[in-house]
Amino acid sequence: MLPKPDDKPFVIADADPQGTDAMALLREASLDARALYPELFTPDSPPATNGPLGERCVYVVAYGDGRPLACGALRPVDDTTVEVRRMYVHRDHRRQGLARAVLEHLVCEARRLGYGRLVLETGYRQLPAMRLYEAMGFARIAPFGEYVGDPTSVCFGREVAAPFVGPVRYPWMRVELIAWLQALADADEFDRAVTYFYDDTRLAQDPELYLGATLGSGHEVDAVRAVTAALDALFAAEGLARTHAEYVVSPAWPAVLAAAVAALGLVRDERGGG
Predict the structure, then answer these.
(1) Most buried residue, 9, 19, 101, 236, by CB count within 10 Å?
(2) Rounded distance, CA 144 to CA 120, Å?
(3) Are 199 and 101 in the same domain?
(4) What span, in angstroms and rounded, lies between the C-alpha atoms of 141 and 153?
(5) Residue 136 near residue 100 (C-beta atoms within 8 A)
(6) Is residue 181, in this structure, part of any structural domain at all?
(7) Distance CA 71, CA 121 (A)
(8) 77-103: average pLDDT
(9) Does the pTM exceed 0.90?
(10) Hey, which bits of the chain come out as E strands?
(11) What are the pLDDT digits (tens) for 61-86?
(12) Would you say 7 and 57 are in contact if contact means Cβ atoms under 8 Å apart?
């Protein structure tokens, strides 16, 4: 799990949109919406509801100490575009990095599901949300779908593989990544470098989790994925019980070296460490 800005761990998990936790957060979101936009509601306005989870849809809840704190969802617009919906953080748990973490998770899910573009809508009074979306690479777009003609709506969009997310939040983790890429490039401390990629972090299993935290761009994610793919091929060819000296003379080793050098050059040169 990535460290959080307030050092309080939370976990993002798939959820049933009609389940207890998702509905509890939706009720809280509705209360906040009524307070923020009282002119849009009447005493007999129907409560907000969630439909069942559809095909290529995602609904997640962020938990802290077992309590639901935030949520977010994806709903397809068409085969290549998906809408970010139900973004909400409980009012008692804001300014802790939850909204950004949920949105980063949804971006990764959109990529996994094969979408090329993300769109979303927020209310014109929700300035902190708009600042977050802009920081995450979203830009304002014309209203779409049900939001056309709604004067309270502000719409945003971005490509799923946005070229740059922004300055990474944990630069010390980036320094560590550079050190272990350098170790691979130098064929030095091989065992420890492998432990870093596979055990100390989840970079080998899911580098997208680190986009915006340690990795500053989709290009860097792809470069780290290439490193671990080359390592996987090395272990498939030679087994897991070889010595460092045996690995570096393997026919599969040059691919590891080339991938590490390429990733090292990219991570050092791109703006993610800024």
Answers:
(1) 101
(2) 9
(3) no
(4) 11
(5) yes
(6) yes
(7) 15
(8) 91
(9) no
(10) 11-14, 58-64, 67-76, 81-89, 117-123, 139-141, 153-159
(11) 999 888 999 999 999 999 999 999 99
(12) no
Could you report the per-residue pLDDT of 225-269, keeping only the tens digit for each?
889 888 988 998 888 877 888 888 899 899 899 889 888 888 886
Residue 72 and residue 125: Cα distance in Å, rounded?
Answer: 19
Contact 139, 158 (CB under 8 A): yes
28/19 Cα distance (integer angstroms): 14
Residue type, 130: M
Residue 175: pLDDT over 50: yes
Select from 128, 159, 190 the last residue of a domain. 159
Q: How far apart are CA 112 and CA 97, in angstroms?
A: 23
The single-letter DSSP state of residue 46 is P
Q: What is the pLDDT of residue 40?
A: 84
Residue 164 lies in a domain: no
Nearest to 108 by CA among 209, 240, 238: 209
pLDDT per residue as tens digits for the range 142-172 = 999 999 999 999 999 998 875 555 678 788 8
